[in-house]
């Protein structure tokens, strides 16, 4: 929802609704009536029209904005080793708000000790998961080369189409070469492919070691930053609120931080619980279908489900490849990935949207665009953070008048309604 105007301290329908929500429950909002919803929608539409009329950009302003955005993204790309642990710490801090309040508020444990206990628990959980899956994962990596002949036999029915595609590719390469003088045969291509495969494995091995060292450094940096956020984050926020120039700005900042804390922390807690259930269900189905190392594939399903769309699709491919190596027939190999896909559709398309629809709705197109962009920018870490960062950006846009049209565009699917109900016409000099 859009926030109040910068020029007015008058309570808005959103303020009244938020106050009723705070009085009812800190986590579950009270359902607004139809009259309140219509009034809120009309006010939001008015604010959006007012912002678009007031903040019109010329060609020079657009050029400066584009250059500023490019400079910011350029800095984020090359400063990923420094920025990424800080962003991860802020997101994990939102996830730890509930346990931190329980330890500090209910059990009266001092904040530093509570934060230290939670960080130690999280570190031990990561170590246990890594230890539990490292041994079977290493065994599978050593088993894959010996399984290639059996895999080729199971996929023998695809040999004909693959050979046809390869011959067509070689003909295209020959035609595209200088005058067609370079003759490329299948044996030469196979030898080059084998040598390239060995070189690729060697490069992957060295990259894995380098990546492990970098990950451990960033992980401990994130834990250090997380400790100080959990212990001194409230005092830092209080100091920032104190330096705001007007009461309206103070109130807006408190509203933004409160909404980020509630919506994003609820989103992270919800998807974490759902991902645990997805991992347990896949562990169970791997055990029932006879796949080896069910714990490994259950943990993999749990982790991949944090990455929207791409993660579950990757899980389907991995399950199919593992089942193809483990099971004697091609049809049997289709069963585990099919069950995995059904579990994901049930969770991702039905249960989770139903739980989050009232508080956390984002446009699916922009979610996918954010996922691809941050995956390119920061790799797998950016893919994990893409949805929370998009949600935080939408909350900021909703509470800043000049950015309210962007926040409206970022919103998820809404109920169909007539264009006549989008709110009254406003002018730049009149209140919405």
Task: Summarize the structure in words.
The protein is mainly alpha-helical. It folds into 2 domains: 76-159 and 190-243, no CATH class; 249-432, no CATH class. Helix content is 78%, strand content 0%. It contains 16 helices and no strands. Helix 4 (80-95) packs across helix 15, helix 9 runs antiparallel to helix 10 and helix 9 (247-289) packs antiparallel against helix 13. The longest helix is centred in the middle third of the chain and has 57 residues, at 186-242. The protein is globular, with a radius of gyration of 27 Å. The two termini are 14 Å apart. Mean pLDDT is 74; it is low at 1-32, 179-184 and 415-432. It is found in: Membrane. The chain crosses the membrane at residues 57-76, 82-103, 115-141, 208-229, 264-284, 296-322, 329-346, 366-393.
Secondary-structure element order, N to C: HHHHHHHHHHHHHHHH
CA-based shape: globular
Main pleated-sheet profile: none
Distance between the termini: 14 Å
Say how many strands there are. Answer: 0
Task: Count the domains.
Answer: 2
Low-confidence stretches: 1-32, 179-184, 415-432
Tell me, rounded to a whole number, the average pLDDT.
74
List the total number of helices.
16
| Broad structural category | mainly alpha
Q: Using the CA coordinates, give the radius of gyration.
A: 27 Å
Beta strand %: under 5%
Share of helix, binned: over 70%
